[in-house]
Amino acid sequence: MSRRTSAPSRTTPQTRIPPRCQPAADELPRSDNGLWGEGQAQTALFGSVAQSSSPVITKLSYWAVMLSNLASLYFAYILYFKLNDFCIVCVSIYIVNILCFILTNLKLRKVVAASAKKAN
């Protein structure tokens, strides 16, 4: 019995490596979600620990927390609609970000009212 060792026939499909997928125009630039998550965490940290009664610092804090919440919306979209998954840690971070936004919004209103009262 002899083994037949011949080249593969022409009807055998060739294995092709697909070209690298390009990001869609509506997506953020390609990078790890961990990098974006770290930026979101740093923004939330800055926004939530600013303990100044200065209107400028409070407004910066407000916008940092707002940016952090927008990033949380993006991550929630990826988690639920792209990955079809549920992460209790991620959802708890989203809840904490919402609470930081509410508290920062209250603080901003209080500081703006106090500065308006001081100006009069």
From TrEMBL:
Family: Belongs to the VKOR family.
Gene3D superfamilies cross-referenced by the UniProt entry: VKOR domain
Domain Vitamin K epoxide reductase: 43-104
Cellular component annotations (GO), alphabetically ordered: endoplasmic reticulum membrane
Origin superkingdom: Eukaryota
Record's protein name: vitamin-K-epoxide reductase (warfarin-sensitive)
Compartment(s) of residence: Endoplasmic reticulum membrane
Region annotation (Disordered) ranges: 1-25
Membrane topology label: Multi-pass membrane protein
GO biological process: vitamin K metabolic process
Membrane-crossing residue ranges in chain numbering: 60-80, 86-108
The entry's keywords: Disulfide bond, Endoplasmic reticulum, Membrane, Oxidoreductase, Quinone, Redox-active center, Transmembrane, Transmembrane helix
GO molecular function: quinone binding; vitamin-K-epoxide reductase (warfarin-sensitive) activity
Pfam family, one: VKOR
Ranges of biased composition (kind: Polar residues): 1-15
Main localization, broad class: endoplasmic reticulum
Annotated EC: 1.17.4.4
